[in-house]
Amino acid sequence: MAQENSENKTAERGRSPQAYLLSLILIVVIMLVDMIGRNFFEGMLVYVFDGICLVVMVIACIVIYNRISRRFEYRVNEQAVQIGNEYQQYMSQWQTPYLMLDNHLKIVWYNDSLRKIISIANAEGKTLEDIRLDWGKDKPDWDPIQKEITLDGRIYKALMTQIRLHEKDQPATESSFTQMYSLSLQDVTHERQLEQENFDQQTVVGLFYVDNYDQIISAMDEIQRPVLEAAIFRRLTDLSAELSGIMTRLERDRYLLQFPRRSLKKLCDEKKFDILEAVKRIDSTSRFQVTLSIGIGVDPDLATARRYARSGIELAMGRGGDQAVVKTKDDQKFYGGMTSSVESNTRVRARLIALALKERIEASDRVLIMGHSNPDLDCFGAALGVYRAVTDLKKPANIIMSADKHAAVDYLYRRVSEDQEHQRVLVDRDEAIRLCGKNTLLVIVDVNRRVIMQYGDILDYAGDMVVIDHHRLAADSVQGAAVSYVEPFASSASEMVTELLQYMVENPQLTSIEADGLFAGIALDTKNFTVKTGVRTFEAAAYLRRRGADSVRVRKMFKNDMEDYKAKAEIVGEAEIIYDNMAIATWSSQLPNATTVAAQAADELLDIHGVLASFVLTEMDHAQVNISARSLGEVNVQLIMEELGGGGHLTMAGAQLKDVTLDEAKDKVKEAIEEVVLKRRKGNTKMNSQGTETPV
Description:
With 696 residues, the protein is α/β, with parallel strands linked by helices. 43% of the residues lie in helices and 21% in strands. Mean pLDDT is 82; it is low at 1-15 and 681-696.
């Protein structure tokens, strides 16, 4: 039957040209007959004869059309089949693995190249997962989808494209199309290996500074100094050998280490910068412990990597030292920083900063002073101290603070507002922006992060900027300050401003309000001179006492009303102990000074026997939870708060969590504690009975 049909089709193809010719001749004959016939008929017979001729002509045209269209369709199909066979043969022999999928991502057809890499005899009807291609369920729409997948240790760049097939004899609607997909695989294993090799061979730049070198050396016997230097150099040389790097000594206390990038993972993940602990175990035969600040710069460009390393070392030292900062183009990570910074007994840097600040003030037309949001006594007191220095230098100055009531500084705020000399000192945001100009100097006190400044947008209006702060630098600290004075070892911003004031002006004309504000700021951050105090702290307090600060007036600034006192007692009473030595409490209140009460409650919790750190979580409006964290120095609450997007310093820190409930925030705090205190030095340290970390 098939042979007979084939012969009929062959005969039909053979007759087709003659049929077309006969049809054309028939049409011509009909037209001639019609013309001749008109001469033999008259009247209605003419119209009847024309109609018959017309019908015959239409039939002839239909026959011709059918013949031509059938012939054309046959030739098109014949060519399509031929092309399809040739294409399928080509694709089967194509060196690139290729397959066709139906709408359910099941294999319809695949070529020989794919068969070789999947080692499956018959893959038709199977899914991509069945042949171990980890593509997933993604389907392309109009745009192709490209991924990199791995199969048997080889890396392939996979490209999936949609193919829309129209069903025959159906109108061209959306439902008449069938979706199929083509997937091609390009082996890029060699390219990725070359890229990884090039990546691993990039040079990483590391700067290693001994934090307190001068203090240690000055306290040592001259005979022991070379021994200490040799011990430090040996530790760093051993590290260099382990990382396949080159160590160069730049100065007595500064070293440069360059090593391949493939060793960075070993330094960060495996060793976890154990060089920090190794150096601290060196016996310096003095009361000072040797610590390092490390800045690691990572970038394909060597000059950029060195710049990142310098930025990292500045950040590490600004955070108090004894830590490492790994800085890349898009990120920076912190390691270490579990101990408190060492107080510097020398005031050389304070004197140099004071002179630089004085020059900036004298070169400006006006000075604006701003602190952090929800200002406390340390922030307000430091602002008053800077205001006194500026006015004594004969320059106009204003403190930016809104007219809204700030419960923490209410008493001092009222004293300043009612004092005749300070009538126009305080300005709000709008007035501050109006006063800003190209030659306006903005002095920022007690904060170094834009996100928690009282009005961060004012930075965009001021001509120049100075930062004075005692909190550790964070990853998002403001950049580009003309003068940056950040000393994490200082007890408070008020202490720092008190020192600067003595070098900037020969005889500062401090008023009693300003002296009380500075003294109150120091008392607040040192918990009445019991935490984080040093020689310079008491010297600053003594200077303020001589300048008129009164402890009785300062005490009034710390008084609470009965409602606040009851709230604080409620927080302490509801607190629970976690991890054996940490207290955590949650509180929901509508008090206007809820943040202040929570901070005071966190301080109270430290008075409980065995508690080394405390966390008070306060539920605010708009699904926001504020966290006040305090410690006695053995637990670094600043690192814990940084895990939650906050900051501060070792003994006092805080954070704000948005769109969370109190229970969710409490879980996040516990996770941060586990990450920082329990896991960060896993393998290098262990928790002792007091809950602090000690080297293994």
